[in-house]
Write the structure tokens for this entry.
Amino acid sequence: MTTNRRRWRDLPLALAMLAPSLVVLVTFVLYPLGRAVWLGHQRCDPTGNRCSSNGWDQYVDVFRSREFQQAFGVTFRFALVTVPVGLALGVGLAVLADKQLRGIGFFRTVFSSTVATSVAVASLMWFFLLNPSVGVLADWIGGVAKNPGLLRDEDTALWAVAVSSVWANLGFTFIVVTAGLQSIPAELYESAYVDGASGWTRFTNVTVPMLGPTLLFVGVVLTSRAFQSYGEFDLLTGGGPNGSTTSLTYLVYGTNSVIKSNDGLQAAVAVLLFVVLLALSILQIRGVERRIHYGD
Amino acid sequence: MATSTLPRGWRAAGRYGLLTAVAVVVLFPIWVMVVGAFKPFGDVLQDPLLPTSVTLETLRTAWRDGNLGRALVNSTIVSLIVTMAQLVTSVLSAYAFAFLRFPGRTFAFGVFLATLLVPFEATVVVNRSTIQDLDWLNSFQGLAAPFLATAFGTFLLRQVFLQLPKDLREAARMDGLGHLGFMREVAVPLARPSLGALALFGFLSSWNQYLWPTVISTDDDWNTVQSGLRTLSQAQIDKPNLVIAGTVIVALPIFLVLLVFQRQLVRGLTAGAVKG
Amino acid sequence: MPIVADVQLRNLSKVFDGVTAVDDVSLDIGDHDFMILLGPSGCGKSTLLRMIAGLEDPTTGDVSIGGTRVNDVEPKQRDVAMVFQSYALYPHKTVQANIEFPLKVRGVAKPERAEQARSAAATLGLTEYLGRKPGQLSGGQRQRVALARAIVRRPAVFCMDEPLSNLDAKLRGETRAELVALHDRLDSTFVYVTHDQVEAMTMGSHVAVMSRGRIEQVGSPQEVYARPASVFVAQFIGTPPMNVLPPGTVEPTEWLVGVRPEHVVVDPDGDVDATVTLVEHLGHEALVHLLVGEAAVVSRVDAAASLPATGDAVRLAMPPAHRHRFDPSTTRRVDP
């Protein structure tokens, strides 16, 4: 049969073309996830060897543990602050710079600039700024900022890390939202203008709904980043003081983590992190998608 | 309208004022960092905001103590390997999904899609032992391996390939071109803007990797710039601006790269967000 | 070297997901013919062309070119070139590189293919555009580049899929004449798909009229116009289309009677009663719309003649020599 032969004819070439990607993705993404799920019910000795089954209810134990609950709370609060604040600031900057003015290119470059800083660069920069002995910000703010320092106080450490994170992500949000603004057809603004809508009305009735898909995308990316944040905590606070900045990822990988050399428990937390992120993305996309307008 | 009661010139001035104020706030940490990097160790404690004394000594010490030259070379090599590999693997798999008909295509596509849902941070535990088993700790291949292929690049390029007119492939068939020839002669050249965006995006994400090199490079000689900064910061707690000098050295090259390739960056970052 | 480039289609069918696009078509296209595949959109004409080119595999039946069965031969080896409706030029290559490309793929040495490309470009008046890219050309120029890319290979068979449909009316008229001249100059057989009857009538040496995956009639343009083989052909070719009246309206027979508008004459001595419903003035002529019993009829008359007014009762003459009779059950032509 001619049609059947054609169906199979491309297969060898297709396999050859997909093989490089598949090998990498299966070895370093899918297999590790499967393996982590399995490892999650194992208990290992401190060298990471001689693992043995501890029963699948280890997941439940981990989930109920004080350490996990605390790390989950830290991560959740961190996301709850950084995502909306980062989004609002990014949109604000993008709207502010979305005008054809002389020299606007310079301001756009400045607002985009934090995209060039890696998590390590941004974190160390803020470590320096918040350092009570150097005192750039400490002198201005005073109080806790001077002694023991915002990063060393249990009540302020998480929010200080959040400031650094919001600043570091600002460039990314600004760039994507600016591109989103530029894809809104000018006629929409013109017709709203002709209808007599004020600046704020145009913003809430044209800009925000047309920006829907962009905001959803940025929101999902920022949430996913917030939940996976590791470098900020590692460099700024080391999970401290007193566990107040031990996020889920820091609980798994951190130098000071209580489960540092237990592969089984680390895997269990990593898998729970995956589940939380998956549920969160689905919720976000489901919830927002109903209320946004796609461009075409 | 309330806003139009102000004269045009005042409104423009107001907007410039606001823009400038925000720019100052955004740039403030960068300014403090640069000023700190050029100060001698002692002075930074007195007057951190103004470049009252300028020296290259702090930068030189950071370069030497942090072994940053070696780290820059490592990062550059790893990022170039990752970028090249991502281009090749993404082009090949995207082409297969866009132009080939074969049994199991939907399933294979589903496998690629599924990898997008797995946070990298959740796989590091197992990947570390995989790399250890391969005896690739402290090596370029160990630092690069997990990032040699990306479902993101595959989806991006598949979309580009699908938007090529169908007639082009058929004209090429009439001209006598097979799939590999069509890919090389037509599909890849026409996808060049997206390839540029993907390359920059891949380079940047590889350069900025933090967790992975701290796990894989147990020997300081194999630090990338990010894990090198970590080593520097842990060793030099008492000299705060030495670390800041290190961050300037690390941030500068990528800042220049982004300044040159702004357009590709915007395209790469917005690939998933903005339609049309 | 004379190439024999006749094309034979034997019982060719193509089914897409249960939908029959081409239904048991047999057709002989002679060497150096200019064969037009004419029909409305969705009639299967493009699919038929693509099976000749090798871009689609027949579900059943055979395609032969020059006496050789080519069902399993890749397009590349069929000695067939194709011009697409969208032109399908490579946007990143210059005109020169576009025209050379089929030769490059076939391994022709660089100086030789450059020479051949220049000569093909000269034939189509493209010499001064060789260094440009397709994006810098007008629609008509792009269309000629597509033609040049096809003729540079000197193919035995030339397939064209509505190549003029993206041009404006004036350019289309000029290009029709150019294509006929090109056909005269080359040794190739042309197979040309269109839905435009004017292109079919002015360019083709033969016309195959298609409907619903089948060929209704094959013949010279004159034959197809003068002696349509079915009601479909009768009404598809000619503007306005042929009037087809139910049995018994014009003559006491069991056949459908077809009369072209120019052969419907308003004549007091005529033998058919009619009522005028509308008169359209088109400048050099006028169309008189009438009702004969229940049937609508159009008459084409000289605009200088005295015209009836809407609502007038008139008599029509339809000369027997210009009547076409069709079987009402099969809709096929009855007269020899």
Summary: The mean pLDDT of chain C is 91. Residues 249-334 of chain C form a domain with the OB fold (Dihydrolipoamide Acetyltransferase, E2P) fold (CATH 2.40.50.140). Chain C touches chain B through 23 residues (CB under 8 Å). Residues 169-185 of chain C form the longest helix (17 residues).
